[in-house]
């Protein structure tokens, strides 16, 4: 069962937490292992650049920022956020047709659904498959926060960083890496490093922001929201119920997924 199917069966906050834990566990089935990830980065970003980005426990937060930001900008330039452009003529004024079932070939690369856009300029349909396979995401070269956060979860782990995948219930996803014992925010879609309040500037009205890692999960909403009193008003659960859901999901992780 896919993580999306698991979440469809239980649309509660607790059910969504367990669905995202399932997705995190699915990351372990990625066929592109760390040496191949580093080889990909070396071939595109450069061998010296890749070597510089490898985790160094003596490197400070500012030194890490200085080291990683050029790589993040390189990635953003080469893997731009996909809106709805035509794959053939690059026309951005396409028509969103909707979602369709992924083809057998797309499913082979772990695509659960595919978006269709129609270009009136060249009269062609483009299929934007929502891949979860790292190798296919990098080969396809088109993605949004879902694809690129998946990619960077693997990239940063391949570079030796403790990494966790962060889900914002107001529809965004990114990663965090451990630097000097503190979790640094990395958003590959924005080439951003440790700018946790950037989403407030987007007008985000946060409800839940949860970090998922090999250790389980943690509610990190307070790190990203401007006013937790307002967050509490927007949440559909009381604080005890939130804590209960987090605890139950942590127990599911420990029982079913933790190594």
Identify the notable features of this structure and list them briefly.
single chain; 259 residues; alpha+beta; six-stranded antiparallel sheet; three-stranded antiparallel sheet
Class based on secondary structure composition and strand pairing: alpha+beta
Radius of gyration over C-alpha positions, nearest whole angstrom: 19 Å
The profile of the biggest β sheet is: 6 strands, antiparallel
Number of strand elements: 9
Mean pLDDT figure: 94
Low-confidence stretches: none
The percentage of residues in β strands lies in 15-25%
Give the fraction of residues assigned to helices.
40-55%
Query: What is the count of helical runs?
Result: 12
User: Largest beta sheet: what is the strand line-up?
Assistant: 7-6-5-4-8-9
**Distance N terminus to C terminus?**
20 Å
The SSE order reads HHHHHEHEEHHEEEEHEEHHH
Shape: globular
Describe what you observe in this structure.
Helix content is 45%, strand content 21%. It is α+β, with helices and mostly antiparallel strands and 259 residues long. It has a six-stranded antiparallel beta sheet with strand order 7-6-5-4-8-9. Helix 2 packs parallel to helix 12, helix 3 (34-45) crosses helix 4 (47-53) and helix 4 crosses helix 5 (61-78). The protein is globular and about 55 Å long. The two termini are 20 Å apart.
């Amino acid at each position: 069962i896919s993580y999306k199917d698991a979440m469809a069966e239980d649309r509660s906050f607790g059910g969504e937490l367990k669905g995202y834990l399932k997705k995190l566990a699915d990351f372990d089935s990625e066929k592109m292992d760390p040496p191949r990830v580093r080889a990909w980065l070396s071939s595109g970003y450069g061998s010296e650049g890749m070597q510089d980005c490898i985790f160094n426990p003596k490197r400070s937060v500012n030194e890490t920022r200085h080291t990683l930001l050029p790589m993040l900008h390189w990635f953003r330039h080469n893997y731009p956020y996909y809106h709805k452009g035509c794959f053939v003529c690059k026309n951005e004024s396409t028509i969103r047709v909707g979602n369709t079932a992924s083809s057998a070939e797309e499913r082979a690369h772990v695509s659960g659904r595919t978006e269709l856009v129609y270009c009136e300029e060249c009269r062609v349909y483009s299929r934007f498959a929502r891949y979860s396979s790292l190798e296919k995401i990098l080969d396809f070269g088109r993605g949004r926060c879902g694809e690129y956060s998946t990619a960077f979860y693997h990239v940063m782990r391949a570079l030796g960083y403790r990494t966790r995948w962060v889900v914002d219930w107001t529809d965004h996803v990114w990663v965090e890496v451990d630097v000097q014992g503190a979790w640094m925010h990395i958003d590959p879609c924005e080439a951003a490093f440790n700018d946790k309040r950037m989403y407030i500037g987007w007008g985000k009205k946060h409800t839940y922001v949860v970090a998922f890692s090999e250790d389980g999960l943690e509610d990190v909403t307070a790190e990203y929201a401007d006013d937790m009193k307002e967050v509490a008003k927007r949440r559909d659960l009381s604080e005890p119920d939130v804590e209960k859901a987090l605890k139950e999901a942590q127990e599911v992780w420990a029982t079913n997924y933790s190594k």
